[in-house]
Specification:
The structure is a homodimer of 203-residue chains. Chain A has 203 residues and is mainly α. The first copy, chain A, contains 10 helices and 2 strands; from the N terminus they run αββααααααααα. In chain A, β1 and β2 form a beta hairpin. Chains A and B meet through α1, α2, α3, α7 and α10 of A and α1, α2, α3, α7 and α10 of B. Bound molecules: calcium ion.
Chain lengths: 203, 203
């Protein structure tokens, strides 16, 4: 395989990997646990892969942890072009459609930098994650929603304060997705976050 | 599995995942590609996982990409206690032994936060990476050394300038490890970096 790989394929891969570096400059709504700065999407991707690996046995269905890892490794790259969309922003249907189109175009451009077979594999994995219909994707999406909760709890509310979020809103926007992929994780985490929302009168 | 997991195991996992957040504050010698700031070890870990996934077919031996990904996911966590050791620091044997002991203690403390079976699995994977004796570990180590080269090339020399590195030093400290796990990758990359070292008179 590697012995006969054309130089141009290797160069294409390096260009893709250099382009990917920009994910380290995409800032998210959440702050890191100590509250000192906003989290970027590259370190977030690392952290949720660790969450997925550590919590894999809590999936509600049979998953392939290595496929979940690969999905989470790739899932945020589209933000290099399309930006991060904070989950607690109120968006009209037209905005959602515009964002979905921008992310689809970003996936085509970025994964399209790779040699053809690899581009196809990466796009398929990203599409599967976005479609949220397979056990691996459902668990990956659940985990992606869990990690910011723990960050917000660690630093005094974080994006819940900035976006003025109530517990019923969190149940709808986050809880439903987490519970679908990892119901016991949601049970546990909801008990952890109730005191904060109660103390803040956000229930 | 998840249905019967004791509450304490789940809590232990969450504490480990929160502790891991500190890797986002461990700064490395390399800067990100645009040169604007130093890279942290969490986003570095994400980036080299992407490198490993994209370049997997260039391994000199048969590897299991999912095991390589898991190794790279975990490999830098010890830096939370032991710090990052820039590869171009000149170190005496006694310093190396002290660092190795600090990293071993860090692995015991951090992975020891997890439920017992999982702690054992994570420690075994970290030990395998450090021992650098299996195909998966050799490829993972190679990839860990490749990524900073591309960052330095992108931002005008980076840590090669800061540590006054010559091409023969890079061959010894980095090239040998990369060539062991991915010889064609090293061939290609060495051609890319020769012009910079030549222009700088560092050959
Ligand atoms: Ca390292």
């Amino acid at each position: 395989s590697g012995q006969t790989l054309p130089e141009t394929d290797f160069s294409a891969r390096l260009r893709f990997l250099s382009e990917a570096d920009q994910l380290k400059s995409v800032l998210r709504a959440s702050k890191i646990a100590d509250g000192s700065r906003h989290e970027n999407s590259a370190e977030h991707s690392w952290h949720i892969m660790l969450y997925a690996w550590v919590l894999a046995e809590h999936s509600s269905t049979n998953i392939a942890p290595d496929r979940v890892l690969a999905m989470l490794l790739l899932h945020d790259l589209v933000e290099i072009d399309a930006g991060d969309v904070p989950i607690h922003t109120a968006l009209a249907a037209a905005d959602l459609a515009r964002i979905a189109a921008a992310e689809q175009a970003a996936a085509q451009r970025l994964f399209g930098m790779l040699p053809e077979a690899q581009a196809r594999d990466f796009l398929a994995l990203w599409d599967e994650f976005e479609a949220n219909n397979t056990p691996d994707a459902i668990f990956a999406k659940a985990i992606d929603r869990v990690q910011p909760i723990l960050l917000n709890l660690a630093n005094g509310g974080g994006s819940w304060v900035d976006y003025n979020v109530t517990l019923p809103q969190l149940d709808t926007r986050v809880g439903a997705k987490v519970a679908r992929g990892a119901p016991l994780v949601w049970d546990h985490i909801r008990r952890l976050l109730t005191p904060w929302f109660t103390a803040q009168g956000r229930i």
